[in-house]
């Protein structure tokens, strides 16, 4: 992995996983490039980051996930980094993986703290297949997949209700 501070960087392993490279290509990249650690994350831009193992699971590419685990990637890895300064505590970048703190100068800073489950929820990639994969690997998840679907459904309904309320509030026809 190549280190850069707060600058989006290109990572060949993550690029290959995102673009559905064959397992042999992933093996080649791991063996022939200077990857000494597979538990890392890369900032792609201000609203996105990628973690190799989590991305393979998000894409339901479990053969690649198994290879990464075999080579040292950890399902219990938690990606943590300072992300950006925000103007208000209510400005957030990430819903499941984010945390906003106030420093001594009353500035707000947003941090990313992502485990595999929150990563999948953050990027809307949690599905029955990868949920079962994680269960088979012995990962204890905080809610059942059906509960997750119910929560997601409620979230969509609440968002739709807020949208309709805003439309009614600001765009009601005058008589």
From TrEMBL:
ANK repeats lie at residues 48-80. The keyword Membrane does not apply. The keyword Protein transport does not apply. Keywords: ANK repeat. InterPro entries: Ankyrin_rpt (IPR002110), Ankyrin_rpt-contain_sf (IPR036770). This is Uncharacterized protein.
């Amino acid at each position: 992995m190549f280190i850069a501070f707060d600058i989006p960087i290109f990572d060949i392993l993550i690029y290959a996983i995102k673009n559905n490279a064959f397992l042999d290509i992933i093996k080649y990249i791991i063996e022939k490039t200077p990857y000494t650690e597979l538990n890392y994350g890369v900032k792609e831009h201000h609203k996105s980051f990628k973690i190799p193992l989590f991305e393979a699971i998000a894409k339901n590419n479990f053969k690649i996930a198994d290879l990464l685990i075999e080579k040292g990637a950890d399902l219990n890895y938690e990606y943590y980094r300072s992300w950006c300064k925000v103007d208000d505590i209510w400005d957030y970048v990430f819903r499941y993986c984010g945390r906003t703190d106030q420093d001594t100068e009353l500035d707000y800073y947003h941090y990313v703290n992502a485990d595999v489950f929150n990563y999948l929820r953050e990027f809307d990639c949690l599905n029955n297949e990868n949920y079962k994969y994680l269960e088979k690997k012995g990962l204890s998840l905080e809610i059942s997949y059906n509960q997750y679907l119910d929560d997601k459904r409620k979230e969509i309904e609440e968002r739709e209700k807020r949208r309709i309320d805003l439309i009614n509030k600001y765009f009601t026809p005058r008589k």
